[in-house]
């Protein structure tokens, strides 16, 4: 049988999902939960529900055939499958490419290796979340990523880069380009992250975590909001615009000054709740290649994704932004956004509400 072009397959999947949604709408009287699902994504369930199809019952309209997940502003798709999650997160900062200065030197293997004063981002998140009563473990060891049944409430990717989930070098042989005899599971980190999210885990991606991480893994692109970093202009002052009320924007003014790299996106993020943007007219220079996003340039957003929660922000380039008392313009607002965003991804604050 002739193989359909991928675009036709996607159109067919989308049509199937739309037809299923229409059938649900046209069927018998909906329960209050189902009516809420169709109207605004419902509410987060409090107990496990049987899985009988690829798309959770009542969520047909939210199925994304490109990433093969239910995603968007759809609380009813959340999976409360782990009942003993702790007030603890795992901070992951491994880089497999460019490394931001605020990360300091690469960390030793294992969990909670020694930190120095140069590990600015790591020290800040440990301190800031500690002030909120949340414990933090940290690592750059891909084998430490949470997976099936993990009790972490969230995993935080802080300025990771490139193939951060690949176990580099395990299968290398000096005398051969490819080792076909190894039993190494080189992409176990990807499996772990996907299974963690699917069981209701929280994900928070900060700065370069959506700025050049896992470029070629579609699942991660979807987790980031159906988008990827394309490029940025100069590190420069700009005006942040608070776009929506949310746990992670509470207490922020409508407009506030900050300094960053102001990432450009391709594709443009979709199916998310936009939280912060940048006023492009406040920027002195722009990218020489990407045309920018005009009057609506988002830099923070949230969504439900494949059973879990995902909250991301492009802010956080400058080490001074991570340093209390540095005098960095907008530092207090940035800190509040980061802490409350992580707390919401954990479920400690209302998520993407």
Provide the fold topology.
Layout (H helix, E strand, L loop, with lengths): L5 H21 L5 H9 L22 E2 L4 E4 L13 E7 L27 H12 L3 E5 L12 E7 L29 H11 L3 E5 L11 H6 L5 E4 L3 E7 L12 E6 L2 E3 L7 E7 L18 E8 L2 E6 L17 H16 L7
Describe the structure.
- InterPro entries: Class_I_gatase-like (IPR029062), TAT_signal (IPR006311), ThuA-like (IPR029010).
- Keywords: Signal.
- This is ThuA-like domain-containing protein.
- Pfam families: ThuA (PF06283).
- This protein has 353 residues and is an alpha/beta fold.
- It has one domain: Rossmann fold (3-Layer(aba) Sandwich), CATH 3.40.50.880.
- Helices cover 21% and strands 20% of the residues.
- The strands form two sheets. Strands 1, 2, 3, 4, 5, 6, 8, 9, 11, 12 and 13 form an eleven-stranded mixed β-sheet that branches.
- A hairpin with a 2-residue loop joins strand 12 and strand 13.
Briefly say what this structure is.
It contains six helices and 13 strands. Strands 1, 2, 3, 4, 5, 6, 8, 9, 11, 12 and 13 form an eleven-stranded mixed sheet that branches.
Largest sheet: 11 strands, mixed
Level-1 CATH class name: Alpha Beta
Radius of gyration over alpha carbons? Answer: 21 Å
Through-space gap between termini? 47 Å
Order of SSEs, N→C? Answer: HHEEEHEEHEHEEEEEEEH
Mean pLDDT: 87
Give a quick set of tags describing it:
eleven-stranded mixed sheet; single chain; disordered N terminus; Rossmann fold; alpha/beta; 353 residues
């Amino acid at each position: 049988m002739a193989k359909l072009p991928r675009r036709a397959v996607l159109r067919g999947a989308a049509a199937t999902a739309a037809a299923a949604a229409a059938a649900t709408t046209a069927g018998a009287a909906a329960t209050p939960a189902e009516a809420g699902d169709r109207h605004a994504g419902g509410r987060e369930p409090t107990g496990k529900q049987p899985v009988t199809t690829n798309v959770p019952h009542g969520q047909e309209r939210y199925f994304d055939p490109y990433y093969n997940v239910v995603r968007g502003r759809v609380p009813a798709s959340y999976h409360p499958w782990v009942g003993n999650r702790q007030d603890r997160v795992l901070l992951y900062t491994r880089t497999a490419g460019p490394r931001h200065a605020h990360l300091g030197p690469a960390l030793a293997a294992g969990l909670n290796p020694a930190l120095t004063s140069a590990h600015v981002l790591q020290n800040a998140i440990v301190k800031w979340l500690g002030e909120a009563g949340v414990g933090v473990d940290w690592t750059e060891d891909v084998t430490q990523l949470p997976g099936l049944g993990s009790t972490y409430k969230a995993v935080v990717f802080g300025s990771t880069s490139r193939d951060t989930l690949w176990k580099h070098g395990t299968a290398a042989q000096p005398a051969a380009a490819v080792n076909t005899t190894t039993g190494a599971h080189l992409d176990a980190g990807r499996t772990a992250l996907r299974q963690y999210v699917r069981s209701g885990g929280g994900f928070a991606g900060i700065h370069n975590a959506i700025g050049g991480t896992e470029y070629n893994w579609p699942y991660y692109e979807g987790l980031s909001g159906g988008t990827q970093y394309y490029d940025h202009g100069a590190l420069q002052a700009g005006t942040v615009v608070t776009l929506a009320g949310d746990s992670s924007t509470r207490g922020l003014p409508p407009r506030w000054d900050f300094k960053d790299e102001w990432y450009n996106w391709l594709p443009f993020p979709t199916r998310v709740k936009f939280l912060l943007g940048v006023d492009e007219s406040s920027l002195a220079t722009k990218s020489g290649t990407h045309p920018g996003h005009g009057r609506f340039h988002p830099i923070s957003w949230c969504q439900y994704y494949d059973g879990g929660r995902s909250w991301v922000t492009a802010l956080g380039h400058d080490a001074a932004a991570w340093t209390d008392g540095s005098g960095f313009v907008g530092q207090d607002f940035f800190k509040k956004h980061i802490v409350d965003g992580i707390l919401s991804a954990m479920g400690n604050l209302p998520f993407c509400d």
